[in-house]
Amino acid sequence: MIDNILENYRDYLVEDGYSDLTPQGNPSTATDYSKRVKRIVKRENISITQLSNNIDFYIEDYGPKGNNSEYGKKSNNAYISALKQFKKFLNNKNDWAKSSC
Asked: Is the whole model's pTM more than 0.85, yes or no?
């Protein structure tokens, strides 16, 4: 389940203008953010559903004043940025689900 959600997240990022691969063929932002969200799930020992349902808590926790702010700042804030984009993905996904009812 986590891999399907993260693959959809990566695809969403690509559609939103983030690159999937560098010109040299290496993983870029979309792939990196997907992997960082997966690392947070493992680090927190939670499911992707728990992360999704509590995304605001984790954004705060990994944000500048949170308990995990040092981890969130790693790699030029890539972890907190990945979480914020994941929230946008979840909101977009929810909006799409509502509009197709």
From this structure: yes
